[in-house]
Design goal:
With about 475 residues, the chain is α+β, with helices and mostly antiparallel strands. It has helices at about 15-25, 105-115, 140-145, 155, 160, 185, 220-230, 255-260, 290, 300, 305-325, 330-375, 395-400, 410-415, and strands spanning about 40, 45, 55-60, 75-85, 90-95, 120, 130-135, 170-175, 175-180, 190-195, 195-200, 205-210, 215, 240-245, 250-255, 415-420, 425-430, 440, 450. It has a domain at about 15-75 and about 175-305. The strands form six sheets. The protein has a six-stranded mixed sheet with strand order 2-10-9-3-14-15. Strands 5-4-8-13 form a four-stranded antiparallel sheet, with no helix packed on it. A three-stranded antiparallel sheet has the order 1-12-11, with no helix packed on it. The longest helix is centred in the last third of the chain and has 47 residues, at about 330-375. It is globular, with a radius of gyration of 26 Å. About 35% of the residues are buried.
Length: about 475
Amino acid sequence: MEENSTPEVVLSDDAFKAYAKNVKEKESQRGQGGNFAADFEDIQYCGMEKGVNKIVRLLGAPMGIQGYSPKPTDPVELVVCDVKDDEGKRMVLKLPLRADQAANDHIVYRLYDKVCEVTWIKNNSTGKREKVFINKDKYPDLFEAVTKTGFKQDKDGKSYSYASGLKGQQVVVYNLIDRSDDWCKENKHTKVLSKQVDIVTQDDGSVRTFAKIGVPSFGFTGKLADQISKYGNYENFDVAIKKIGEQTNPYEVRNASKLKSADLLDELLNDDGSDLGADRIVIGPLTEEEKKYERYDLKKLYQPTSYQSIRKRLSSVFKLCDATMGTKLYDELDRLANDERAKYDAMNAEKKDQETTEREKVESEFISSEVKKEDAPAPKRQAPEKRVGPAVGLSQEKIALLKGWSKLPDKDRAGIADVVVKDGKVVSLVFTDSFKDESMLECVQCVVQSPESFTTVCPVCGIDF
């Protein structure tokens, strides 16, 4: 998370409207994606509900503002794939948006495009041209592996029907101020926009929040662009977002502040006729206090899945494509993963060097102060005050913060030497020397690193990899 990263409202309405025009042009060319799996993290979400207006203040400059350098807390767009990995476990695969040129696309897209190559054939009965996947019947196993990614029709039911495979679905994620309650005001912090949020009670009695990543770009960004075209920067007004649920019209987005000022709130009634709470709609720009709210680092939270994780968990589909179609995609993936690891190792080495330099500086200052003390007259000694030092190492308090601890085998528990906590949250783990030569992979949910061979359960957030 990043504090006080809010840009002052220097982005003009004209800049937002130019962005909106570009979005509307792309919206007409965009297809609709499929379903995706739930994501959970220790963050606060604002989830959409069908037929219910959610009053929010969207924050940050959207992607595509000309001449603007994005901040980590600005909205992000990505592609999310709900897949099953090589061991049959659910995985949220996060990918960057497609490149301007297909040759520069992410390797997952190039695999998908290779297998799902399309031709158009005229249907003699209708006279219309129809899209045909040329490899669907030619290589059925490979086609199924790419388009359904491990889901089976006889076992997974609706999940199989909704699965879009490695094509995924483009989504957008925003920081926002949720007007439906006082959480943001009381905590001086934003929430994150989500298509759907579920509160689930686990078998052990604990309660967890599961949230889908963002909202589908198709059907949302276009509607938001309509409001930007009329009113400019959305940081200056509250919007009402209502999930419609129709395939071609999934969301309705309105300027709630404008409707309130025009006494037209009847247009924002929920589908069941209930009032949305007009007193919570704010007219006017962000207050100075709201500008200072802490915002989530969306760039970090929703960064693309690492090549190392893809190699570890989805290598079989690359190898199947190579064996079936004569490609060499797995070799390329292997190189990308190795290069990525080398880069991580270099960054970690640099970080350790910096920590060592800082430690040596502190030690040097300490020695200098001790020398000065020896030259000074000895002070009168006082009886030492009895103090209790902070816990060092893996204390019970730290173990209690690890949601996946109970799922870990004994060998993995023994491998955790310490837990690094900041502001009451786990930010990293320290492992014993037995793992010092292993590649470290980030959890796809909480982004805390663990050794590659460590486990199939994240110690921190408890999700099954």
